[in-house]
Specification:
globular; 8-stranded parallel sheet; about 350 residues; alpha/beta; disordered C terminus; two-stranded antiparallel ribbon; about 40% helix
C-alpha cells in the first residue's frame, strides 16, 4: 500500500488514482518492480562497533543527504493545488535531488527558485532543437541537469494508457500548459523511440556546454549502457518507466543486476522501479546503483497529505535506510559488502560490486 493511499484516492478520485498506480493493460494488480525487489535479502553483521551512520551521497555534483532522488511525474497540479512546489520545499529541507517532468504544470523557474538541486526530465522524441531549447531554459533558471527518457515515453492509443486515464487530455481540458509545451497539455510528439546515439550525442554535447549533467533513462540491457556512454551520457538510469507501458518489461531490479554483471562500463548507474522502503535503497546500491529514485510513494503522499505527507514519507525512507545500514554493521553504504546481498533462498548474488 502506498503512503496515505486512502486519503489520496479520496482526494483525487478513482480514475486519477488509477493513473497514479500506472498499471499496464497486459498486467495484473501486483507491481512487478516491487515484487522483484522482494526477491532479494540483506544479511546483517554484528559487533561492528558502528556509532553513527552517514548516508550523504554525491550524485553528479549534487550533494544529497541520502542515496535517494525524487522522480518525475506528469500533471503535478492534478494531484495537489500546489503541485511540485510542495515537493520541492520538502526536498530542499531534506537535501534530496528532485527530477521534474517536462509534462509538469508548475513552471520550472518556480520549482528551481525553491530548490537548488533540480533536474529536468525530457522525452527523447521530436526535433533535437526542441530538447536543446528546453535544456537552455533549464540552465537559465538554475536546473542542475537533464534526464532524457529514451524508452517509448508516450501512450498513443487509448487502450495502452496506464490506468486507462488520459492525463494529457485532462490537462488540455483544463487549459493548463506544461514546461515542455506552448499549448495546453503535453507537447504532441512521436510515441515510439526513434532517436539514435547521434541525437543523444547532440544533446550530451549541448548539455555539457551548458554545464548540465545528462542522465539517460530507460536502459534495461547491458549493451545499451555502452551506447549511452558512447553518446556522452554522464549517467544511466536503469528504469522500465514504472511498467506503465507493459508489465512484461524486465523488472528494474533484475535489469540492474544484469547491467552491472554484463557491462564493463564505469558510467554511474541510477535505479528506478519499485522503491518503497529503506531496504530497497540498500538493495539497489548493492546491485550497483549510486542512488535510487522514488516516485509513486511521493505522488501518493502529495495527493493524500500535501507537503506534510511528502516530507513524512521521505523522512521515513531516510530513517529506514539509516537503520538498515546500521543493522548491517556499516557506518556508510559503501562499506557494505557484496556477500550481504543474497536471493530469497539464500544464494549469493553473483557478479555485483561494492557500492561506490
Amino acid at each position: 500500500m502506498l503512503p496515505f493511499e486512502t486519503e489520496a484516492r479520496a482526494a483525487i478520485g478513482d480514475e486519477l488514482f488509477g493513473y497514479l498506480l500506472g498499471r499496464a493493460v497486459d498486467g495484473g494488480d501486483e507491481d512487478a518492480n516491487e515484487a522483484a525487489l522482494r526477491q532479494f535479502r540483506l544479511v546483517p553483521r554484528i559487533m561492528a562497533d558502528v556509532q553513527a551512520v552517514d548516508l550523504s551521497t554525491r550524485i553528479l555534483g549534487l550533494e544529497a543527504a541520502a542515496p535517494l532522488i525524487v522522480g518525475a511525474f506528469a500533471g503535478d497540479r492534478l494531484f495537489h493545488p500546489e503541485g511540485l512546489l510542495a515537493v520541492a520545499r520538502a526536498c530542499h529541507r531534506l537535501r534530496l535531488p528532485l527530477i521534474v517532468s517536462e509534462e509538469t504544470v508548475t513552471p520550472l523557474a518556480e520549482i528551481a527558485g525553491i530548490h537548488d538541486q533540480v533536474l529536468l526530465q525530457l522525452r527523447a522524441a521530436g526535433p533535437v532543437a526542441r530538447v536543446m531549447a528546453l535544456a537552455d531554459h533549464a540552465a537559465k533558471v538554475g536546473a542542475r541537469g537533464l534526464v532524457l527518457t529514451v524508452l517509448a515515453p508516450a501512450h498513443p492509443i487509448d487502450g495502452l494508457r496506464p490506468g486507462g486515464f488520459n492525463v494529457g487530455q485532462e490537462l488540455r481540458d483544463r487549459g493548463w500548459t506544461t514546461i515542455g509545451s506552448d499549448r495546453p497539455g503535453p507537447m504532441p510528439l512521436p510515441a515510439f523511440p526513434n532517436w539514435t546515439t547521434a541525437e543523444v550525442s547532440q544533446i550530451a554535447a549541448h548539455s555539457k556546454a551548458l554545464g548540465l549533467a545528462l542522465i539517460v533513462k530507460g536502459v534495461l540491457h547491458p549493451d545499451d549502457v555502452a551506447r549511452c556512454e558512447q553518446a556522452g551520457a554522464d549517467a544511466v538510469m536503469v528504469s522500465n518507466i514504472g511498467l506503465r507501458q507493459s508489465s512484461r518489461w524486465i523488472a528494474s531490479a533484475h535489469a540492474l543486476a544484469a547491467v552491472r554483471t554484463g557491462s564493463s562500463t564505469k558510467t554511474p548507474l541510477l535505479f528506478d522501479g519499485g522503491v518503497r522502503h529503506g531496504s530497497d535503497v540498500l538493495i539497489a546500491c548493492l546491485l550497483g546503483a549510486q542512488a535510487a529514485v522514488v516516485s509513486r510513494p511521493i505522488l501518493s503522499a502529495l495527493a493524500g497529505r500535501g507537503e506534510q505527507g511528502v516530507e513524512a514519507t521521505l523522512r521515513s525512507l531516510i530513517d529506514a535506510t539509516m537503520a538498515m545500514t546500521l543493522w548491517m554493521g556499516a557506518g556508510r553504504i559503501d562499506a557494505l559488502t557484496q556477500d550481504q546481498l543474497v536471493t530469497a533462498d539464500g544464494r549469493p548474488v553473483v557478479g555485483g560490486e561494492h557500492h561506490g
